[in-house]
Amino acid sequence: MAAAVEGALDALRVLYLEDNAVIAMNFVAMLEEQGAIVADHSTVVAALKALRDGDYDVALLDVDIRGATSFSVAEAALSKDVALVFVTGYGHETLPAPWREYPLCEKPCSGSELSAAIQHAIASKDRAR
Questions:
Q1: pTM above threshold 0.85
Q2: Which of 25, 27, 82, 117 could disulfide-link to 103, CB 3.0 to 4.6 Å?
Q3: 58-61: strand order across its sheet
């Protein structure tokens, strides 16, 4: 794995949805090492509440959450003008067509790959304005 770029995500507010505690712990560590402020959640309900109640720059979403999908969280994030990155063990082709235009970071990934996907999502959102 390539080393993460320290400070690459300084003060970026990240909503992270992942139902696997070990994966979540590793991703949170990678994000925080790069300066991000991370609110991690393991259920769709918790992530939706956090989005409703808080302000985020990017939503980082695993697709399969305990047998359900995170697409309702993705819709809520987009409605609040939050950049979106899917993080999954499956490729882009497994996403339903409307979601394939958003960045995807395939697990496992390095901190630099994750950072690049996040920065791409933010830049794409800013260009769309």
A1: yes
A2: 117
A3: 37-41, 13-17, 58-61, 83-88, 104-106
Encoding tokens for residue 100?
A: 């394939």
Structural class in CATH, domain 13-113: alpha beta
Which tokens hold the place of 56? 């985020």
- Summarised one tens digit per residue, pLDDT across range 7-54 is 678 999 999 999 999 999 999 999 999 999 999 999 999 999 999 999
DSSP 8-state secondary structure symbol assigned to residue 9? T
CA distances from 94 to 7, 19, 65, 66, 126 (A): 32, 19, 15, 17, 26
Domain assignments of the chain as residue spans, ordered by start? 13-113
